Amino acid sequence: MTVASSESVRLTSETDVVTVRRRVREVAALLGFSLVDQTKLVTAASELARNNLIYGGGGEMLVEVLNGPRTGLRLSFRDQGPGIPDIGLAMKDGFTTGSGLGLGLGGAKRLVSEFDIWSKPGEGTRVTVTKWK
Amino acid sequence: MEKIPILRMGDFLLVTIQVDMHDRLAIGLQDDLTNAISQTGARGVLIDISSLEMVDSFIGRMLANIAAMSRVLDAQTVVVGMQPAVAITLVELGLPLPGIRTALNVDAGMELLRAAIAPESYGRSAYDRGLQ
Amino acid sequence: MATASSKEATARGLKEIITNSRESLAGDWIREMSEGVRRGDLMRENELRSQCDRFLQVFVDAIDVGGTNTKTAAWDTVRAFLAEISASRATQGFTTSETATFVFSLKRPLFDRIQKEYGNDSQSIARELWTTTLLLDTLGLYTAEVYAKAREGVIMRQQEEMLELSTPVVKLWDRILALPLIGTLDSARTQVVMENLLQSIVQTNSKIAIIDITGVPTVDTVVAQHLLKTITAARLMGADCIVSGIRPQIAQTIVHLGINLLDINTKANLSDAFAMALQKTGSSVVRNPLSQ
Q1: Are the CB atoms for A61 and A8 separated by under 8 Å?
Q2: Are C53 and C125 in the same domain?
Q3: How far apart are alpha carbons B53 and B20 in whole angstroms?
């Protein structure tokens, strides 16, 4: 499996979330993902981009096209924010420290094929999701 | 600053969401609608999301909030036109969207609103028949 | 070892050889193709002949401009032509080797003529043969690759069509759809079927969808969950579902799995479900006094 292409989208203001949605939709459509899969990807990206902005203070999203026996799209959201002290707890549906429903992480995980999260309090957080065609 | 237009149709308010909404726009819509219901005394709100290709938890929450606030102001809300891919994704996301009535399109939505608002004139059975 | 100038010599040599004996070359080429490669059952002789002629034409043109380096843009037309005939062979039902051998079988006729051309000059012959074989190998392999990709595409489309055909959505009445499921459901099939149903609901403006599972012998957790998700999604869209034809075994499985059916309308059979759907959509059936 190789990374065929990669691009970065900065996340500094909430209009960037709209850019994220648009870009993910474009790339997913180009790669030939079904409409439902495209929507799942865009929705997951929207959730994670928002988390990145609101809880992580902003950062960037990396979009990578994966080539191999299967085609895939990998999205990584990085921030240098306060980090998540208890990831297990954060992944549970309904958990939130903000005013949201807290469905961000758990929900996003259900929309993709692979989900990976790294976080260190004081250093930042990186959430990576992959969807195979 | 852009706003989503709210149309008045008799006793109802109609909102057609056609743009990809960023959070502030969504919050703005919530506020504008609440004000509009108050000012016009509207009994029903129809939100047309047939152009929305994505509904995430924030937008879902916005819809739920609008429904809740309308109810407090004695108005019913119906969301119409959800696309299949969006519906499938919302179910997968696990978003319950409590208390939100839905219909396939604006016409069906109007029918639903009329039945919900004036059950006496339409026959209580229409409302009770679980048309949601 | 071929130097730049010797490559040029090869290019010129090949071009001349082909140009001078095009007719007979094409004839020998076709004769070289075994019956298995020609597939008279799939392709007519004159169509094959015109493909050979065309290939020789673009081949010579490419050598003329770009020499023997197939990576240059001069060879784009050749690649495009090979891609075209590969893709069509993929749909027609040729095998990979039958398709690639279209190119490979040009070797012997060409080699014969190269040998004749250079007589006793064994060094030149060796050089020419080597360059020519490399050239045709590259093109043959390219043909095989394009074929493989096209074949995958054909298979995927056929699978999709089969899935769609095997589970048609039926419009029973104004705003009432029925989806009679038959046979065992696996996860992939169920997902496709359910997506089709939701799409049909929108297209036909239906308020009610009856999912009839009389013809489904067993339902496992995964399929049951897909069904539930579909019903929830339909509700979100503004339509309602009725599940009919639940066999006793399936009813047991559902209870066993702890699935809450209280929210879902169920009916013993399709006609009861239809009656319920009519009622819910405000229709009723009236018996005409004049009919039997």
Answers
A1: yes
A2: yes
A3: 8
Beta-strand relationship, C208-215 and C176-182: parallel
- Chain A residues touching B57 at Cβ < 8 A: 47, 100-101, 103-104, 107
Q: Give the three-class secondary structure for A55.
A: coil
Both tokens assigned to B107: 């016409």
Given C141, C163, C185, the domain boundary residue is C163
Q: What is the pLDDT of residues C203-234, one digit of tens each?
A: 999 999 999 998 888 888 888 888 888 999 99
How close C232 gets to chain B, by Cα (Å)? 7
Based on the domain organization, do C176 and C144 belong to the same domain? no
pLDDT higher than 80, residue B31: yes
**What is the rounded CA–CA span in Å between residue C143 and residue C147?**
6
Q: Closest to C237 (Cβ–Cβ): which among B84, B126, B131?
A: B84
Contact A110 B61 (CB under 8 A): no
List of chain C residues with pLDDT < 70? 1-7, 35-36, 163-167, 262, 291-292
Domains of chain A: 2-132 (3.30.565.10)
Element (H, E) at C105: none
Domain of residue C56, residue span: 4-163
Residue of A43, A48, A91 best to disrupt the B interface, most CBs of B under 10 A: A43
**Residue C169 distance to chain B (closest CA, Å):** 15
C163-177 pLDDT, tens per residue? 666 667 999 999 999
Task: Show which of C163, C183, C216 is a domain's final residue.
Answer: C163
Say which CATH topology domain B6-128 has: Transcription Regulator spoIIAA (3.30.750)
**Helix or strand holding residue B18 (H, E):** none
Note whether B58 contacts A50, CB cutoff 8 Å. yes
Q: Are B130 and C199 inside 8 Å of each other by CB?
A: no
Distance of residue B90 Cα from the nearest chain A Cα, in angstroms: 9
SS3 C92: helix
- The angle subtended at Cα C188 by Cα C186 and Cα C194, nearest 5°, is 95
How far A87 CA lies from chain B's nearest CA (Å)? 19
SS (H, E, C) C24-51: HHHHHHHHHCCHHHHCCCCCCHHHHHHH
- The partner residue sitting opposite B91, judged by closest CB among C202, C229, C279, is C229
Express as a percent the part of chain C with pLDDT over 70: 94
ipTM over 0.90: no
**Residue B102's closest chain C neighbor by CA?**
C238
The answer to whether A126 and A63 have CB atoms below 8 angstroms apart is no
**Cα separation, C229 vs C263, whole angstroms:** 12
* Average pLDDT taken over every residue of chain B: 88
Q: Find chain B residues with C-beta within 8 A of C199's C-beta.
A: 84
